[in-house]
């Protein structure tokens, strides 16, 4: 059986963290406004943390991630399933990266009654700070089997011939039927 591959995420290389900070502030404002709305609906104080956590879970989905380093290269993996990659972007500065995208969930019952659905519409939002500055020209982004992989060389690390920041899709694997 052959799986179709999807195109790679948009890669935006930044000189500084200003745009990442602005994106983070915009999400924080949305969460803050929703938390306030929840507290107003409840009508009494004392559950501010619950309101914040509820608002956060309604607005964003934070994918699990890991960041490792080997031979002067940082490797980031994020588990992002069910996202249309054309709607996802990776922003990277020498100090950090931000992965952001949006997915929508329509409850398709396919003619039946939906008794349980944990799927939701949300903004995938994950910011990761690198322990050391990276060479933004070395960034490589790929996606395969629900895992977004980003690699970047440490700034000043010797890596073969100079490369350009790029994204690529991974070829579909053939599986036995």
3D structure, described in words:
The protein is 21% helix and 32% strand. It has helices spanning 18-42, 48-59, and strands at residues 10-13, 60-61, 65-70, 73-79, 88-92, 96-103, 122-129, 140-144, 147-153, 166-169. A hairpin with a 2-residue loop joins strand 3 and strand 4. The chain is built from 2 helices and 10 strands; from the N terminus they run E-H-H-E-E-E-E-E-E-E-E-E. Helix 1 (18-42) crosses helix 2 (48-59). With 177 residues, it is of the alpha/beta class. It has a domain at 10-16 and 60-169: Immunoglobulin-like (Sandwich). The strands form 2 sheets. A 5-stranded mixed sheet has the order 1-5-6-7-2. Strands 3-4-9-8-10 form a 5-stranded mixed sheet, with no helix packed on it.
Features:
2 helices; alpha/beta; disordered N terminus; 177 residues; 10 strands; five-stranded mixed β-sheet
CATH architecture of the domain at 10-16 and 60-169: Sandwich
Number of helices: 2
Secondary structure category: alpha/beta
Quick check: average pLDDT?
83
H/E series, N to C? EHHEEEEEEEEE
Helical coverage, percent range: 10-25%
Poorly predicted runs of 5 or more residues: 1-7, 169-177
Q: What's the multimeric state?
A: single chain
Q: Given this structure, which CATH class of the domain at 10-16 and 60-169 is correct?
A: Mainly Beta
User: What value does the Rg take, in angstroms?
Assistant: 19 Å
Number of strands: 10
Stated plainly, the CATH topology of the domain at 10-16 and 60-169 is called: Immunoglobulin-like
- Which sequence of strands runs across the widest sheet? 1-5-6-7-2
Distance between the termini: 6 Å
Q: How is the biggest beta sheet arranged?
A: 5 strands, mixed
Q: Which range does the strand content fall in?
A: 25-35%
Shape: globular
């Amino acid at each position: 059986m052959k799986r179709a591959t999807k195109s790679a995420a948009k890669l935006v290389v930044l000189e500084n963290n200003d745009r990442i900070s602005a994106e983070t502030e915009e999400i924080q404002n949305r969460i803050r406004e929703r938390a306030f709305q929840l507290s107003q609906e409840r009508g009494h104080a004392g559950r501010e943390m619950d309101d914040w956590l509820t608002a956060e879970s309604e607005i964003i989905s934070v994918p699990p991630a890991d960041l490792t380093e080997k031979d002067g290269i940082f490797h980031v993996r994020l588990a992002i399933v069910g996202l249309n990659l054309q709607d996802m972007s990776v922003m990277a500065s020498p100090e950090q990266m931000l992965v952001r995208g949006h997915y929508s969930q329509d409850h398709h019952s396919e003619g039946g009654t939906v008794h349980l659905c944990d799927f939701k519409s949300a903004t995938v939002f994950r910011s990761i700070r690198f322990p050391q500055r990276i060479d933004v020209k070395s960034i490589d982004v790929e996606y395969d089997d629900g895992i977004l992989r980003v690699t970047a060389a440490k700034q000043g690390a010797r890596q073969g011939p100079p490369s350009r920041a790029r994204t690529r899709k991974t070829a579909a694997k053939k599986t036995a039927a």
